[in-house]
């Protein structure tokens, strides 16, 4: 390149650089406009009506499921997707397994604090959003946890004979979901949430439903291998967070990404846990999930 050309490019390269920086910032700011979440009032109550939407074109399932870890060590936060999502080995799950199998309560506590956490993502249409009515009628991604997934599962596989199985994701025979959020014993709680009786979405008008379907997001990215670091990269990150001793904890080891997320919505915690926080009950249920995973590892 001649110097004259180089000089000419000088201004445009600033523009390019600025654009690149903006793109990077966009990626790093965890406010992803595709996601919706219920707005909670000062006492952490929230209410909205949403409709889960069917699988997007070219995809099989109306939800994506993945695991992540979020915890703090003396080297800072470790917030990463867990490769067990893809059936691959995870260095954090491995060290958790080691801690769990020591049988010591103290070690188990550390393992619990670092355990993989379950997330689901679905397309939804917001039906009623009193705190943000501008969202009504729009399609978003919604990230939720085991509790809400259990409610979806119950609607598809009801426990009692007098209850009819529904597919809540169906345009024509699905059902709106009343999301009711409260704070119970210091934890965000979704227990009161429930499905309405079945209803047709958008009056069942094919044109409208087809348009809506066309605006849904693809969920494949949430389990795309490119969003999961390699075993070695994760091990390096883990060791940088914890140091050489996997038993190393910060002074306040009860601080997990979730408690941070609840208190001040720390950006990093948002990334891992935006949208759902666990109740003590879920904690136990997921503990069981984690336990069976550890047992499996131990038997391998
Ligand atoms: Zn893991």
Give an overview of the whole structure.
The chain is built from 9 helices and 8 strands. By secondary structure, it is α+β, with helices and mostly antiparallel strands. Strands 1, 2, 3, 4, 5, 6, 7 and 8 form an 8-stranded antiparallel beta sheet that branches. A hairpin with a 2-residue loop joins strand 2 and strand 3. Helix 2 packs across helix 9 and helix 7 crosses helix 8 (267-273). The longest helix has 26 residues, at 3-28. It is globular, with a radius of gyration of 22 Å. Residues 252-300 have low confidence and may be disordered. Bound molecules: zinc ion.
Pick out its properties.
alpha+beta, disordered C terminus, 300 residues, 9 helices, single chain, binds zinc ion, eight-stranded antiparallel sheet
| Ligand roster | zinc ion
Helix and strand element order: HEEEHHEEHEEEHHHHH
The number of distinct helices, counting runs of at least 4 residues, comes to 9
Q: What sort of overall outline do the alpha carbons produce when their principal axes are compared?
A: globular
Kindly state the percentage of residues in helix: 25-40%
C-alpha-based Rg, rounded: 22 Å
What is the rounded distance between the termini? 59 Å
The major beta sheet can be summarized as: 8 strands, antiparallel
The SS-based structural class is: alpha+beta
Average predicted confidence as pLDDT: 83
Question: Which consecutive residue ranges, at least 5 long each, have pLDDT under 50?
Answer: 252-300
- Beta-strand percentage? 15-25%
Would you count the extended β strands for me? 8
């Amino acid at each position: 390149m001649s110097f004259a050309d180089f000089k000419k490019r000088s201004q445009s390269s600033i523009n390019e650089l600025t654009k690149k920086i903006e793109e990077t910032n966009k990626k790093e700011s965890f406010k992803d406009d595709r996601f919706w979440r219920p707005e909670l009032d000062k006492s952490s109550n929230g209410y909205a009506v949403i409709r889960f939407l069917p699988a997007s074109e070219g995809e099989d399932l109306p939800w994506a499921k993945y695991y992540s870890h979020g915890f703090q060590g003396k080297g800072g936060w470790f917030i990463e997707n867990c490769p067990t999502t893809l059936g691959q080995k995870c260095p954090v799950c491995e060290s958790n397994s080691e801690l769990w199998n020591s049988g010591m309560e103290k070690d188990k506590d550390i393992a619990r604090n670092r355990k993989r956490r379950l997330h689901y993502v679905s397309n939804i249409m917001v039906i009623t959003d009193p705190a943000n009515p501008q969202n009504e009628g729009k399609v978003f991604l919604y990230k939720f946890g085991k509790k809400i997934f259990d409610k979806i599962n119950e609607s598809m596989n009801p426990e009692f004979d007098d209850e009819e199985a529904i597919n809540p994701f169906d345009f024509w025979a699905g059902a709106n979901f009343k999301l009711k959020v409260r704070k119970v014993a210091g934890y965000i709680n979704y227990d009161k949430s429930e499905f309405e009786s079945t209803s047709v979405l958008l009056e069942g008008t094919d044109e409208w439903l087809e348009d809506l379907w066309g605006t849904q997001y693809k969920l494949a990215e949430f389990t795309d291998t490119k969003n999961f670091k390699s075993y070695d990269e994760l091990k390096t990150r883990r060791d940088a967070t914890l140091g050489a001793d996997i038993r190393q904890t910060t002074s306040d080891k009860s601080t997990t990404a979730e408690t941070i997320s609840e208190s001040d919505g720390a950006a990093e915690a948002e990334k891992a846990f935006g949208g759902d926080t666990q109740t003590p009950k879920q904690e136990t249920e997921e503990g069981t999930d984690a336990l069976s995973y550890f047992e499996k590892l131990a038997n391998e």
